[in-house]
Design a protein that fits this description.
single chain; Dihydrodipicolinate Reductase, domain 2; 7-stranded parallel β-sheet; about 35% helix; 11 helices; DapB_N; 4-hydroxy-tetrahydrodipicolinate reductase
């Protein structure tokens, strides 16, 4: 009997789902116990290993999240907002760790996670699971706190041409950090669209630019621009596996934690 934590992966057929499955099967600290896909998906009923084009892993893809979550200690979820909310409810019933890497969630959808955290789920949610990005988040907050509105803040993010949401979850996370550093609400200062005669830039706004093209894994710049100088904080991801490894770290960290909502800064001990 395998005594390491059992992990379920939702959206098993997706790019991140398959990456997570590969990382889990190569780990000696956890094991793959369930793979979940949406009802009607062609992988349902197949061994997830052979569905991925490899050898059997002994895990059959299912569309029954409740049943899958009942036999694992954590679920890692990089899917879509509405699916994530449904998974959160099931994770709460099972009393397991729910690691959420889903992006594109609205403030209202994020708020809807609170009941699941209260009812039994250990929710670890972050717009980006990498160590480097979370360090960048902390640096962004500190620099924003040190510089006044004479320094315009712009967040520029680049991703592959298959990404469906913009700005990216990471860009919004960086925007939240900058706003927190300045003691304002991001919703009050966010500038996400410039087209045509927009007028001059409003002092204190935090601007966002999204670039989509090719196979870019993820690049994020936070620019502080003032008269005569620019300060640019940058993170470049060249391997998608780093997001998977961060999510697995979160799944292990959450074991034994009290139900509630956490993020990667908690996981990495960077809260302060």
């Amino acid at each position: 009997m395998n005594e390491t934590p059992g992990i379920a992966v939702t959206g098993a057929s997706g790019r991140m789902g398959q990456m997570l499955i590969r990382e889990i099967t190569e780990s000696d600290k956890m094991h793959l116990a369930a793979a979940v896909e949406r009802p009607g998906h062609e992988w349902i009923g197949q061994d997830v290993g052979t569905a991925m084009g490899g050898t059997e892993l002994g895990v059959t893809v299912t569309d029954d999240a409740a049943q899958a979550f009942g036999q694992v200690q954590a679920v890692i979820d990089f899917t879509a907002p509405q699916a994530t909310l449904a998974f959160a409810a099931e994770a709460a019933k099972a009393g397991i760790v729910h690691v959420i890497g889903t992006t594109g969630m609205s403030d209202d959808e994020i708020a809807q996670l609170a009941p699941a955290a209260k009812d039994g789920a250990v929710i670890v949610r972050a717009g980006n699971m990498s160590l480097g990005v979370n360090l960048l988040t902390q640096l962004t907050k500190q620099v924003a706190a040190a510089l006044d509105v004479d320094y315009d803040i712009e967040i520029i993010e680049s991703h592959h041409n298959q990404k469906v949401d913009a700005p990216s979850g990471t860009a919004l996370m960086l925007g939240e950090a900058a706003a927190e550093g300045r003691g304002v609400a991001l919703a009050d200062v966010s500038d996400r669209g410039r087209d045509g005669i927009t007028g001059v830039r409003k002092p204190g706004d935090i601007g966002f630019t999204a670039i989509r093209g090719g196979d870019i894994v993820g690049e994020h710049d936070v620019m502080f621009a003032a008269a005569g100088e620019r300060i640019i904080l940058r993170h470049v991801a060249s391997d998608r596996a780093l997001f998977a490894r961060g999510a697995l770290k979160a799944a292990l960290w959450g074991q034994g934690k009290a139900p509630g909502e956490y993020d990667m800064l908690d996981v990495l001990g960077l809260k302060g």
